Amino acid sequence: MNDFIITTRDLNPQKNLGGVGNYYTCIRPFLSTTVRYKYIGKRFKDKTPVAIRLISDYFRLWIKLKNANLLVVNPSLNKNCIYRDGVSSIIAQLRNKLFVVFFRGWAPEIEKKIDNSAYFKYWIRKTFLRANHIIVLSSQFKNKLREWGYQGPITIETTAVDDRLVEGFTLHESRAQKPQNSCHLLYLGNISKAKGVWEVISAYEQLTHPQKTSDIQLLIAGGGTELENLKEYVIQKKLQVSFPGYVKGEVKTNAYINADLYVFPSTHGEGMPNSVLEAMAFGLPIITTRVGGIPDFFEDGKMGLFLDNRDPGHIAEKIQYLLDRPELMKQMSEYNYNYAKEHFYASKVAKRLEKIIDSVIDQNTKEESWIK
Question: CB–CB of 131/152 below 8 Å?
Answer without folding.
Answer: yes
